[in-house]
Amino acid sequence: MNPMEELLASYHPEANCLNDSVIAVTGAGDGIGKAIAKAYASFGATVILLGRTVEKLESVYDEIEAAGNKQAAIFVIDFESATEQDYQELSQAIDETFGRLDGLLHNAALLGERTSIANYSCSIWQQLMTVNVNAPFILTKKCLPLLQKSQQASVIFTGSSVGLKGRAYWGAYAASKAAIENLMTTLADELAETSKICVNSINPGGTRTQMRANAFPAEDPLKVKSPESLIPLYVYLMDKSNTSGNNITGQQFNA
Ligand code: NDP
Question: Which whole number is the average pLDDT over 208-215?
Answer without folding.
Answer: 98
